[in-house]
Amino acid sequence: MDLFIVTGGSKGLGEQVCLQALERGHQVINLSRTRPNIKSERFKHVTADFSRGLKTVQKVDSVLQDISMTAFKKIHLINNAALINPVGSLVDLDLAEMNTHLVTNLISPLLLSQVCARIATEEKKPLTVFNIGSGASFRPIAGWSMYCSSKAGLKMFTENTDLDLQTARNKRIKIYHFSPGVLDTQMQQTIRGLKKKDFPDVANFKKLKSEDQLRDPADVASLVVRFCLFPQTSQGQSCLITVQDLEGSLK
Fold first, then answer.
1. d(CA 134, CA 3)
2. Residue 98: which residues within 8 A CB-CB, separation 6 or more?
3. Averaged pLDDT, 234-247
4. In angstroms, how far is CA 101 from the centroid of its own chain?
5. Disulfide: which of 54, 148, 211, 246 matches 223 by Cβ 3.0-4.6 Å?
6. pLDDT in tens, 203-227
């Protein structure tokens, strides 16, 4: 049995990752502000608001320290929790919302990755850090300066950490940045509700929904969980992976 630690597992892709891991007989710890309607003896919910950064991660660290890792073969951290707002031009953004966004999307995943890497090293357990990224981390998008910047930061952290692990010849820890494509989630609903003046490309996102171009979170979650469980698929794999990569390698 493996241990899956999932952030933002109360809805969308995160909730589906929790469900998929449980269906395969693994232990799941969900870290989110609200508890999903998941009932299982192998499921544990920890209330965690990642906009509070260090304080929340220290709380999670304490919880993990109290859990016996003996029964687990491997540990998987799925950094999924993220915000889309604030959206708009720089002069119109709210300072507090900018801070909340960056702490949630960038600082907290980095801190939590360190906590899990330290615990996995102490417990001598293999660790997979799977950062849910976005195509927005590769290119600028009008109105999305915060989202593109936070996701690009997470991408660079992944690449740099992967380099550090290779340099140290540390084969026990693997880290990946995953671009899941456009999913049919609550975040997409929020995006479709944005004003054109704040997000000029909103019409294209509405079109994706109307033309049934959005991926099912359950299908993508299945790929994520299977990739974590079967390390042979990652041999020679870049730390930057896309949903298309997993669809090709996990047929």
1. 25
2. 86, 146
3. 84
4. 14
5. 246
6. 877 887 788 777 899 999 999 999 9
DSSP string for residues in 161-219: HHHHHHHTT--SEEEEEEE---B-SHHHHHHHTS-TTT-TTHHHHHHHHHTT-PBPHHH
Cα separation, 16 vs 230, whole angstroms: 18
Locate 210 and state its tokens: 């109307």
CA-CA distance, 186 to 14, in Å (whole number)?
12
Phi, psi of 7 (to 5 degrees): -95, 145
Q: Is 147 a catalytic residue?
A: yes
Alpha helices in 66-184 (DSSP H): 95-102, 108-123, 145-167
Helix (H, G, I), strand (E, B) or coil at 225: helix
The Cα 6–Cα 29 span in angstroms is 6
Q: Enter the tokens of residue 101.
A: 């966004």
Look-up of token digits 């952030």: 7
Coil, strand or helix at 156: helix
Report the length, in residues, of the chain: 251
Which residue's structure tokens are 């919910």? 45
The answer to whether the peptide bond before residue 86 is cis (omega within 30 degrees of 0) is yes
Check residue 236 and give its pLDDT.
Answer: 60
64: three-class secondary structure by DSSP: helix
CA distance 112 to 108: 6
